[in-house]
Amino acid sequence: RRKWNRVVGVLKELEEGCSTSIGRLRQVVDAMAVEMHAGLASEGGSKLKMLLTYIDSLPDGNEKGTYYALDLGGTNFRVVKVQLGGKRSRIVRHKVERQPIPPHLMTSTSEELFDFIALTLEQFVERETNSSDLPLDKKRELGFTFSFPVRQLSASSGILIKWTKGFLIEDMIGKDVSECLQQAMIKKGLDMRVVALVNDTVGTLALGHYHDADTVAAVIIGTGTNACYVERTDAIIKCQGLLTNSGGMVVNMEWGNFWSSHLPRTSYDIDLDAESPNPYDQGFEKMISGMYLGDIVRRVLLRMAQESDIFGDVASSLSVPFILRTPLIAAMHDDNSPDLREVDRILKDTLQIQEVPLKARMLVVRVCDVVTRRAARLAAAGIVGILKKIGRDGSSGSTSGRSKSGGESTNKMRRTVVAIEGGLFASYTMFREYLNEAVAEILGEEIAPYVVLRASEDGSGIGAALLAASHSSSN
Ligand code: ADP
């Protein structure tokens, strides 16, 4: 009994540590907007890099022709072809082929990696080409989604700042990514040209905008997390005299590295960070994304096991880092059976913990809930932070339409769409519901109806092909 009380104590402490009251979320919203300002004011002015993309126009549905894209940025590598029919028919056909990256290439040389990419592309193009496709003299154009931090030189070129996500190819750092691909394609005799180099959030934004012109931001919540949005060029103070036709530019926030003292942080987060390969880095991502949520839950359960015997005395598998993946906590969280059969199965199969009593299984579900709810609500606050920065959260006088006299008119409030992509938002129902709910809660019932969160799929690749179309030299 005393031991059970200790376990309940661990849960209580977790709940308090993970508190995301509306007041606290508003502080996170403000902090996000402030950091965005700081990151735009000067290079290194914030933990948010706020990288320029040189993408100043987004596809709008008028694009025509056949375009390709490559998407490199995680465990899978994708090759994409889209056929666009212009205003009426829009995306006539698209094809996405996924292929895992052979692990040895992730730590090889840039030449080996890009030879593999060019070969995959060449085979795809051959398979996909039929005579009716393209006049032979027409050069094929390609969008390249490369989801690692890049210092862009133009919309179609940029230099790799550093590798992440398990890639480490030293000779690539500081090199022009498009040039590496271009060289490999020339070697293969492949007549294609890179006309857009973007990261995955920008691809998602492009596809979102193609479908719905009110789309102004995109968020990825998968293994990692990041966001981008359309900023006014005159607000990008660190780059004076930036001129674009549209007066705007997409900014890649690299928001996974956001940090604020208002974020509700627990001892589990501190330990996870300290034991990670990149301590003090990607603080927001470590509280939100799929790579980490399972491991936060594992750490709480381990603590409970240490305080008591609820998981029996052989709970050693709980001390194995990353043994509990996020899809498993989603499965336990979604378990609707009265006796929590799925929870029981996962505890047995993954953690080798047998015969856990029902009330302890309920506790496990509760831990998943607390950790996931915090993640979803913090992501929601981040999104509203972006809306606040661009005057779409209903709080700033001129853009929201709230009259100066303090009246409640929202007649000038514009419809605003945020495209969201990634395994967590797409597949983890409770995460998605908590996120939607928190965005509405922070905005309030008057403004919330103007803001649409739209789930997107394969945007990172298809969006890059659309950007190739809108940046095509034949336009
Ligand atoms: P990536 O971010 O690796 O490019 P995804 O956007 O598909 O790819 O995200 C994959 C991540 O999403 C996984 O690492 C996992 O953490 C999370 N995920 C996938 N499926 C689920 C699920 N059913 N429930 C919860 N999380 C999931």
From TrEMBL:
Pfam families found in the cross-reference section: Hexokinase_1, Hexokinase_2
Pathway entry: Carbohydrate metabolism; hexose metabolism; Carbohydrate degradation; glycolysis; D-glyceraldehyde 3-phosphate and glycerone phosphate from D-glucose: step 1/4
GO MF annotations, alphabetized: ATP binding; D-glucose binding; hexokinase activity
A GO biological process held by the record: hexose metabolic process
Domain Hexokinase N-terminal, residue spans: 11-210
UniProt keywords, alphabetically: ATP-binding, Glycolysis, Kinase, Nucleotide-binding, Transferase
All residue ranges annotated as the Hexokinase C-terminal domain in the record: 217-469
UniProt-listed Enzyme Commission number(s): 2.7.1.-
UniProt xrefs under CDD domains: ASKHA_NBD_HK_plant
Entry GO terms, CC: cytosol; mitochondrion
InterPro entries registered for this protein in UniProt: ATPase_NBD, Hexokinase, Hexokinase_C, Hexokinase_N
Record-stated family: Belongs to the hexokinase family.
Annotated protein name in UniProt: Phosphotransferase
